[in-house]
Amino acid sequence: MLWVERGRVRGGAQAIARLLIDAGGLWRPLGLLIRVPPFRWIAAGVYHLVTVNRFRLPGGTPACKLPPSERPGAGDPVG
After folding, report:
1. SS3 per-residue string spanning 36-72
2. Which residues are CB-contacts of 51 (< 8 A; sequence separation ≥ 6)?
3. Which domain holds residue 28?
4. What does R_g of the chain's alpha carbons equal in angstroms?
5. CA quadruple 67, 73, 77, 79: dihedral positive or negative?
6. How many domains does the chain have?
7. How many whole angstroms separate alpha carbon 77 and alpha carbon 11?
8. Mean pLDDT across 63-72
9. pTM to 2 decimals?
10. Model pLDDT for residues 41-56, shown as the tens digit of each residue
């Protein structure tokens, strides 16, 4: 996932954090929490696990599986 705001691009867990912050309400504190260590690091790890296993999650299909060269962390700085 990418979040583009005023020319700045965020990816991965930090894009999710911005989405939650902008959603407001009870989501805002969670988004703010994801932006600070050690929660930032945990969120990045969870995001990575979801991205590489999304085809196994409910609603996932074989089409969701990326080839190894296109998986986050395989040379992709956004990950």
Report:
1. CCCHHHHHHHHHHHHHHHHHHCCCCCHHHCCCHHHCC
2. 12, 71, 72, 79
3. 2-70
4. 14
5. positive
6. 1
7. 9
8. 69
9. 0.74
10. 999 999 999 988 888 8
